[in-house]
Specification:
The protein is an alpha/beta fold. Helix content is 43%, strand content 17%.
Length: 88
C-alpha cells in the first residue's frame, strides 16, 4: 500500500507563516518517506471563502518549491467519492 501525505489549505485568505510551515513539513515528510503528496483545497466553509485565494495559495506553494503528485483537488467537488465510501 502506498503512503499518501496531503496538505489542505482553506481558501479563506492568504497563507500565513503557520500554513506555510505545515505545508513544508508535510511535503518534506512525504518526500522523505517516498509517499505521494496530494494538494486539496478545503473549501467547505463557504461563508469564509474569498475569491482568488485558492489560486494565490497554489502560487505561494510553487514559489516555495513545493510540488505535488496529485491535485489540486477541491473538496467540495468530491462528494461522490464520499457517497461511494458511505454506501460500501
Amino acid at each position: 500500500m502506498n503512503s499518501v501525505g496531503r496538505y489542505a489549505p482553506s481558501p479563506s485568505g492568504p497563507l500565513h507563516l503557520g500554513n506555510l510551515r505545515t505545508a513544508l513539513f508535510s511535503w518534506l515528510q512525504a518526500r522523505w518517506c517516498g509517499a505521494t503528496f496530494v494538494l486539496r483545497m478545503d473549501d467547505l466553509d463557504t461563508p469564509r471563502m474569498r475569491s482568488g485565494m485558492g489560486e494565490r495559495a497554489i502560487d505561494d506553494l510553487k514559489w516555495l518549491g513545493i510540488d505535488w503528485d496529485a491535485g489540486p483537488f477541491v473538496q467540495s467537488e468530491c462528494h461522490h467519492y464520499y457517497q461511494q465510501a458511505f454506501e460500501q
